[in-house]
Amino acid sequence: MMRSSTRAAVAVRMPDGSITGRILDVKPLSSRNPIWKKPVFRGAASLIDSLRMGMTALNWSAEAVVPQSTGSGKEGRGESTLSTVIAAAAALVIFGWLPIRLGMLVSDKHFVINLVAGCTRIVGFFAYVAGISLIPEIRRVFTFHGAEHQTIHAWESGASDLVAAGENQDPRHQRCGTSFLFLVMLMSVVFYAMLDAGVAFVLDRQPAAHWRTLYHLPLLPVVMGFSYEILRLVDRNLERSKLARAMAWPGLLLQRFTTRKAGRAEVEVAVAALRLAMGEDPGPGVTMAVSDE
Asked: Is 280 helix (H, G, I), strand (E, B) or coil?
């Protein structure tokens, strides 16, 4: 999947070796209200849009490669929604309540609680990504993730032959969503520590772990927003600042788990998606899927 300032597109390698592309029918939040283009707000909008578009792209690509031959579309969508709800609830417990509860068992100081919670989330995230990377199908997904980055590197370098140039590029990229998520987890330590201290001062007692989880969650977009602005600042100063490179290093390290070096076959798919996102011809041999409204 690729995004530009005007549209998003996805391309998939079909079982017969051909490539099928599609423009995603998902309007970004910035097109609905100008506030989502403002600093801090644009960070939250970017991650929310990426999740929405990513789910749409993933579901469509799965259906394109393995079409459903039986059952109604509503039934399939119902099962998908149920799976999403269960996964979200599990993530809330594992990455929300449990780390905070562990932190409260270690200390009653707000910074220490959130430091333990943040470290627990980071270790858990690393372990989760490392674990699923052992699954062959997921490794294939990570290879296409690398192909996206290699193609973007080639495009940013001004290469005329994106496929040939992309094959030799680094599969990691400093503006990757993986780096963004890692930075969000780091920022949440400081932000939520200050928030919890304020809540405890008002209530004159320690908030329970489940209450902390519930009021942390709706404020997550604020953390995302500030993290996004830091990521932009780091990216602008990457070439001339040692501090910026040091701040980018943990995210690039994490991408060693979430990306794999892609070959020509994967890069060709990423290039087709990029050209579609830029409003260009995706290239010879690429067929376009009909969008289902």
From this structure: coil
